[in-house]
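[#protein-structures] MJ: dropping Fructose-bisphosphate aldolase here for a structure pass
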Amino acid sequence: MPLVHMKDLLNHAYAHGYAVGAFDVVSLEFVEGVMAAAERSRAPVILSLAESHLEHYDFALLMPGMEAAARHSAVPVALHLDHGANLEAAVRAIRLGCNGVMVDASRSTFSDNLTRTKAVVEMAHACGVPVEGDLGYVPGVADMDTWRHPATRPYTTVAEAKGFVERTGVDFLAVFIGAEQSCLKSKAKLDIQRLRGINQALGMPLAMHCRTRLDDDQFRRLIAHGVVKINYFTALAEAANAAIRARARSAPSAGYLDLVQGVGAAISAEAERCMRVWGAAGRAAEVLACCRPWVPVEHLIIHDVVGLSEKEVTAMMIEGQQTLSAIPGVRSVITGKAMRERAQYRYCWQVRFAAPEVIDSYHGHPDYVAFTNRRFRPVADREISIDYAMESL
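AK: finished. structure tokens for Fructose-bisphosphate aldolase:
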């Protein structure tokens, strides 16, 4: 189950001078293509879902496919929310399975960016999830939303980057030095000297959201100065588009399944090319050896109840499901009743946490404290509670 801590993954890349691709996926063809590339090249990889794409697919439907692909992979994988709009988006992404989140407040004032990012960091760190901050300007990640973003904005400064990291506590920082322009056909002009200064001041993994053309040497120069997470979508989409158009030209009467038949292979070829250029190929074994596995926790409670009718117990459990499932880091809350009427423990709760860190933040959360003190503890009898780390074979 090589779903690993994203912070460990990127810290390894930073320490060893290579970059991990954070490939934005919009369908299972993208997921399968990227994962096939990672398996062939034995490279660590980040599967990323961008909030700016949510009008084109259902986040809650695609995430289980991503998580299944990661857990069945032989290479290390992290799952990331890209361009999250706010705290609520980050909470939802963690609940659905992301173990890394980016908060995108780049179009806000510096002060508002600090406030919004710090709130996400406090929540996510309590769930064991690292956060990517965004300073300067990172445009939208999709061809279809280029019109929403201006072509130029101020570059990230060393002073702002240092102050931002110190005051927010982000784990990684997306910086703007010229690789993020909205022009897709011209070669980027990178401010490497600026990047060098930021890297020397921060000494932490940096991220780059590339929407313009970069050659192999430019990528290597970025990586040499701290860029170890490269967000990548546009070229994958172009490869998919080209495969569909080529198929349509060669077989004008082809149906949908025939038209998309080559999409996965085209995406996979471009992703693998990147993994090799960025130095991630062949790193899977050493990354797995040093990264913590990302392990969910099952919090189980079995108990009896005194002083309540069956109808009142049902109402209490429904309220508990609604209240507890909204706590950050809680992925699901399931309640049950013993099948044998005379069972010693007639009721159970199964609460799935995103990570072990949630155990403490959950029990300290004011909504949990209020519900248990007001509704649960006064009526619970012979309660047994235990946490299990869930590992699949």
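MJ: nice. The chain has a mean pLDDT of 90.
AK: one more thing. The chain is about 45% helix and 20% strand.
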